[in-house]
Design goal:
By secondary structure, the chain is an alpha/beta fold. The chain folds into four domains: about 130 residues; about 280 residues, no CATH class; about 140 residues, Alpha-Beta Plaits (2-Layer Sandwich); about 100 residues, no CATH class. About 45% of the residues lie in helices and about 20% in strands. Strands 19, 20, 21, 22, 23, 24, 25, 26 and 27 form a nine-stranded mixed β-sheet that branches. Helix 2 runs antiparallel to helix 13, helix 5 runs parallel beside helix 8 and helix 6 packs antiparallel against helix 7.
């Protein structure tokens, strides 16, 4: 097709050439404008390009005097669960210092007094004698013990940036870090925190230094750059890592250099570190390496090899999963936060930081402009195929140049933008008329391929006028389905998100097929929930019965899936958690059609019938059943399905009550003696219940064996609990037997 278009250009004349070039220029102008505005999606694509560089060639880990004191699973198993008494942390500081550590930083904030201090224990413990209480109160607090240990060491305590000003103000005035600013006030360029969470006064005042461990990730949640300084109302605050480096190298003042464009660099420990305009440094990560870590338990128990900590800068933090301090980096989706600080420190010590020069944006603009103008000039002259080959050569040169700059100079330049821009220009000029003939029909096929049967999709494709923006009033049957206890199931996949995705695909596929095979339209998926309807966009006179048949088939296919999963779980030795669903069905008049705007719309439904169906699904859990249907659906499907009246219910958000039914089975179940007996048992129970003959209703419940054989025991228990409540607190005079739902 590309070659054919190239041959046709000679016959189209100069007017077509002019139109193509105008389209190319318009695309180029739009791309440059978007790049200038720098929306989050553009920056994210750029950052993903840089991630590819980092993954292809991460920093090689060399022996640097940085170690992580890890409050790991081993430490908590040996010593006890976190938080530990600060006397234990004081012991940790003392033994680490005795082992030769130069300085220690805590990736932890001690914001409140230690609740395990003797005086606090004396106030809270039960059964102590007055003498014991007084003796405990006379002992030094755990915070004072830790402060004493800190006086004999170089310790940097962590602080955290707060999104709001703290309600309580500490009695101690903040201790300012010595900072020399060169080139003007840098505050407006730095990340800002309205408040700072500090340590208790005894610890804060004793520390050799104080640093922020708060890190703001990029748009996509990945930490690539870390601000070396942040601003707050009380001044400038260094990052934890560089404060540790300052204290370890003698405690001289920082130098923060800035100009009209922003921050230029930070000087710490005699090293000038270049930053971006917001004072951030690109961390040059290595892969996660347990060689950095020393278990806190080993230090406390004296099990660290001699010399392991000598001359090292220590960062105290945790890798324990239960404490939740995991951060995403370009190399690791779950790196312990303390290691991020350690890798920043290593980047500075090895002077191996990544650089994105201040002229990078201009260079990327010029590259995109030149390559795209070359495409605009040559496409009408050389033809699409030759330009495509030439463009491939240019793309290879740009990609190679970007990689070499990273590989040799640790420089970050975005080659994806000029490549994407020039390719977009090429595609716009080459294919601007290509897709016009089939676009409308194909868009319909794409929109409905996963929601309707192929035959229905083809009918819509042949009649696209039925999909114009707007809606029509029709009687539909609505179905809502949702998983019960999905949170508990998902928690079992906490360390295996791909497994959870596969499970959801296994779950949704048979349920969706059950709907589509019975002429249903899937409106949307909402996580583990499904919404579908019948009688639109094509007519379905049996929409109520098809909806009920689909619901029963969904439940049957879920039983099959649970049986398969049980065998798999037993084979793999893990506990089996069956997936259970609740389904709500309702029939009534709704508005159905394309809802949205002229540029983006969805084929969907609106109306009270939709809301009731959703509420019925939510009530299945309260009634202990799988499928609840509204009265209109029951009336239309009564002769072909086993339906038993469940209650007279006023769902949340509605004034009029709805008579709701349990869908038990198909026509075969309806004809069975067990169903006929269960229908009589529940009918008698409901009659006694609504007449407030509580004992008679309870007797009916006790004797309802057939109903229990049809899995209606949960419904019986609901009424038994409700009746016991009414016996203690009778309903008001004039009670009409309607139950008012308090939840959705």
């Amino acid at each position: 097709m590309v070659a054919k278009i190239g041959k046709d250009w000679g016959r189209r004349g100069r007017r077509w050439f002019g139109a193509a070039r105008l389209v190319g220029l318009a695309v180029l102008a739009a791309a440059l404008t978007i790049k200038y505005l720098d929306p989050g999606v553009i920056e994210t694509l750029q950052l993903k390009t840089f991630d590819l560089y980092v993954k292809a060639k991460p920093r090689e880990r060399t022996q640097l005097p940085v170690a992580i004191v890890d409050i790991d699973e081993k430490s908590m198993a040996t010593i006890g669960q976190w938080p530990w008494p600060r006397t234990l942390l004081a012991e940790l500081v003392g033994k680490a210092t005795a082992a030769g550590a130069v300085a220690i930083a805590f990736d932890i904030v001690f914001a409140e007094p230690d609740r395990l201090s003797p005086a606090r224990y004396a106030d809270s413990a039960v059964g102590l004698s007055a003498a014991v209480r007084e003796e405990l109160r006379s002992l030094a607090s755990n915070d004072a013990v830790m402060a004493g240990a800190m006086k004999r060491a170089r310790v940097v305590v962590g602080q955290s940036g707060l999104p709001t000003k703290p309600a309580a103000v500490t009695a101690m005035q903040p201790i300012r870090t010595p900072i020399a600013t060169i080139g003007g006030d840098p505050t407006r360029f730095l990340p800002y925190y309205p408040g700072i969470l500090r340590n208790v006064d005894a610890i804060e005042s004793t520390a050799a230094g104080r640093g922020l461990f708060s890190i703001r990730p990029e748009f996509d949640g990945i930490i690539r750059r870390i601000a070396l300084f942040s601003a707050a109302d009380d001044g400038l605050h260094p990052a934890l890592s560089i404060e540790l480096l300052r204290i370890a190298t003698g405690g001289n003042a920082f130098a923060l250099k800035s100009n009209a464009a922003g921050i230029a660099s930070v000087v710490v420990g005699g090293v000038e570190v270049p930053t971006d305009s917001n004072g951030r440094i690109w961390v040059n990560y290595t892969r996660h390496d347990r060689g950095r870590y020393v278990s806190a338990a080993d230090i406390i128990n004296g099990a660290v090899p001699p010399g392991r900590l000598a001359g090292h800068l220590l960062l105290v933090g945790t890798s324990a999963v239960g404490l939740g301090d995991l951060r995403a980096t370009p190399l690791d989706p779950g790196m312990p936060g303390v290691e991020v600080h350690a890798q920043l420190l290593e980047t500075i010590l090895s002077k191996s930081w990544l650089e994105r020069p201040h002229y990078a944006l201009g260079a990327e603009f010029i590259a995109a402009l030149l390559v795209s103008l070359l495409v605009i000039a040559l496409v009408p002259i050389l033809g699409a195929m030759r330009v495509l080959i030439l463009g491939g050569m240019i793309a290879a040169a740009l990609a190679t140049g970007g990689w070499l700059l990273f590989d040799q100079k640790r420089m970050l330049l975005d080659t994806l933008f000029p490549l994407a821009t020039s390719f977009a220009v090429f595609m716009a000029m080459t294919f601007m008329n290509y897709l016009s003939e089939e676009r409308q029909r194909q868009s319909i096929r794409n929109a409905f391929a996963h929601y309707l049967s192929p035959a229905m999709v083809e009918q819509l494709a042949q009649n696209p006028d039925r999909l114009e923006l707007g809606g029509e009033v029709r009687e539909l049957t609505l179905l809502f389905s949702d998983v019960r206890g999905f949170t508990a199931i998902s928690e079992t996949y906490r360390t295996n998100p791909q497994g959870l995705t596969r499970l959801m695909n296994r779950f949704l596929t048979p349920l969706s097929n059950a709907i589509i095979e019975r002429k249903g339209t899937i409106d949307k998926y909402m996580g583990d929930a499904v919404m579908a309807f019948w009688n639109a966009p094509l007519d379905d006179p049996d929409h109520a019965t098809n909806g009920c048949a689909a619901a029963l088939e969904m439940a049957a296919r879920l039983d099959t899936l649970n049986a398969e999963r049980r065998v798999e779980d037993e084979a793999e030795g893990r506990p089996h958690m069956p997936m259970l669903i609740g389904i709500g069905i309702n029939t009534g008049v709704t508005v159905v059609g394309n809802m949205g705007s002229d540029v983006r719309f969805d084929y969907s439904v609106l109306g009270d019938t939709v809301n009731v169906a959703s509420r019925l699904e939510g009530q299945t859990k309260d009634y202990g059943v799988t499928i609840l249907v509204g009265s209109s659906t029951a009336a239309a499907a009564q002769s072909r399905f086993a339906l038993i009246e469940a209650d007279l219910l006023r769902v949340k958000g509605k004034d009029e009550p709805e008579r709701v039914y349990v869908l038990v089975g198909d026509a075969g179940v309806r004809a069975s003696p067990a169903f006929q007996t269960a229908e009589r048992e529940l009918g008698q129970m409901l009659a006694a219940y609504r007449a407030q003959r509580w004992d008679d209703a309870l007797a009916c419940i006790a004797g309802a064996g057939a109903a229990r054989s049809l899995r209606l025991g949960g419904l019986l228990e609901v009424f038994a609990e409700r009746i016991e409540a009414f016996k203690s607190a009778p309903p008001p005079a004039g009670w009409d037997g309607v139950y008012v739902a308090t939840t959705k």
